[in-house]
Automatic annotation (TrEMBL):
Subcellular location(s) per record: Periplasm
Keyword ATP-binding tagged: no
Protein name, entry field: Tol-Pal system protein TolB
Entry function: Part of the Tol-Pal system, which plays a role in outer membrane invagination during cell division and is important for maintaining outer membrane integrity.
InterPro entries per the UniProt record, alphabetical: 6-blade_b-propeller_TolB-like, Tol-Pal_TolB, TolB_N, WD40
Taxonomic source organism: Hydrogenophaga defluvii
Sequence intervals crossing the membrane: none
Keywords per UniProt: Cell cycle, Cell division, Periplasm, Signal
């Protein structure tokens, strides 16, 4: 390991502390499903408030809103009288329990009820070590979200981001709500451009510890890492192909920043772009057939796309004269990006079918958008009320939420894939 840089194995140890709920949700969705969450039986004795984590997750999505509970705790075996919940205009009711097992683990159980139809929608059990209680809560929220909306939940996924505090840079891996953040890497030199592998086991990133930009692949579970690109000149902006077999990056082998394809297991780079301009920030379309990237070949930075094997590029963004940081959604419908408007950097989303582009934020220092794997939300970094912030926003721009994050300058978030 290079002196001055430490890589840490990620564990659940930090999860044993009580969660700090910093759910700052602004905006109102067009339709929000009202759900009541009864206190989980035995939950008050657990190190994590599972029911509160579930509620915070669901509210952050913007599609569900919590109805105040009636009475005391209810577990998954209860046959609740649904009339009082119906009077409170709840459409759904979640009950459950948190039980400590003889081996020290906790069993998180839940049951979901359709209050309007008086139907039992089923439930599940998650026996987990104490360090995974938050993860179990997120999985409960995922199940509830999918049952009630039809879309897959993303609460048990993870986000990576970089912070700078003083002279130290940290690469963090956190829950999708920003809690339980753990440092994957600490360095006195800049760390930039973290990118999750498709299976969520690795993070590619750029480190300056060699006094030049070098790309590493970091195994999240073990903390081990390996060199991906340390070619002559600059190595930056890594992007994994959807099948995980390739990484496309920006290299300056020929003197100019161009896109190159690298085998994920090593080997010689293959040049994809052949321009005399700066081509950078590649991002694969979800089908792996197309690469979006930023180029100033038209005189100012704009977003283009080309076949994944290289070839003719077509311009994608036409609103504004400075558009960067493309992030396609997993369903192939949207492209999030940052546009400079009158000196302000704002988050935009482009409907790839209609070509319609819309601003999502009223802030002025947005950067590095990254779609959730269900295509419903975007995480990005910004400055809000003079503070660095990690934010999520729904694709329609109606619901924003500030996530928990480390102190210092917050940069370059990347939303990881569904957990497998």
């Amino acid at each position: 390991m290079v002196a001055g840089v430490s890589a840490l194995m990620l564990t659940g140890a930090a999860a044993t502390a009580h969660a700090q709920f910093r759910v700052e949700v602004s905006g109102v969705g067009l339709t929000q499903i009202p759900i009541a969450i009864a206190p989980f039986r035995g939950g008050e004795a657990a190190p994590q408030n599972v029911a509160a984590i579930v509620q915070a997750d669901l509210e952050r999505s913007g599609l569900l809103r919590a109805v105040p509970p009636v009475g005391g705790a209810l577990d998954e075996t209860s046959r609740p009288d649904l009339a009082p919940w119906r009077e409170r205009q709840a459409d759904a009711l979640l009950t459950g329990s948190v039980t400590r097992l003889a081996d020290g683990r906790y069993d998180v159980r839940f049951r979901l009820w359709d209050v309007v139809r008086a139907q039992d929608l089923g439930g599940l059990s998650f026996p987990v070590p104490v360090g995974d209680l938050r993860l179990a809560a997120h999985r409960v929220a995922d199940h509830v979200y999918e049952k009630l909306t039809g879309d897959k939940g993303v609460f048990s996924t993870r986000v990576a981001y970089v912070s700078k505090q003083g002279a130290r840079y940290n690469l963090w891996v956190a829950d999708a709500d920003g809690e339980n953040a753990q440092a994957a890497l600490t360095s006195p030199e800049p760390i930039i451009s973290p990118a999750w592998s498709p299976n969520g086991s690795q993070l590619a990133y750029v480190s300056f510890e060699a006094r030049k930009p070098v790309i590493y692949a970091h195994d999240v579970a073990t903390g081990r890492r390996r060199l991906l690109a340390n070619f002559r000149g600059s190595n930056s902006a890594p992007a994994w192909s959807p099948d995980g077999r390739q990484v496309v990056a920006t290299l300056t082998l020929g003197g100019q920043s161009q896109l190159y394809a690298l085998d994920a297991n090593g080997g010689e780079p293959r040049r994809l772009t052949q321009s005399s301009s700066i081509d950078t920030e590649p991002a694969f379309a979800p089908d792996g057939r197309t690469i979006y990237f930023v180029s100033d070949r038209g005189g100012s930075p704009q977003i283009y796309r080309m076949p994944a094997q290289g070839g003719n590029a077509e311009r994608v963004t036409f609103t504004g004269n400075y558009n960067i940081s493309p992030s396609p959604s997993a369903d192939g419908r949207w492209l999030a990006y940052v546009s400079r408007v009158g000196g302000a950097f704002k988050l935009y989303v482009l409907d790839l079918q209609s070509g319609q582009s819309n601003p999502l934020t009223d802030t002025t220092a947005d950067e590095s958008p990254s779609f959730a794997p269900n295509s419903r939300m975007i995480v990005y970094a910004t400055r809000q009320q003079g503070r660095e912030a990690l934010m999520t926003i729904t694709v329609d721009g109606r619901i924003k939420a500030r996530l928990a994050s480390a102190q210092g300058d917050i940069r370059e978030p990347d939303w990881g894939p569904f957990q497998r």
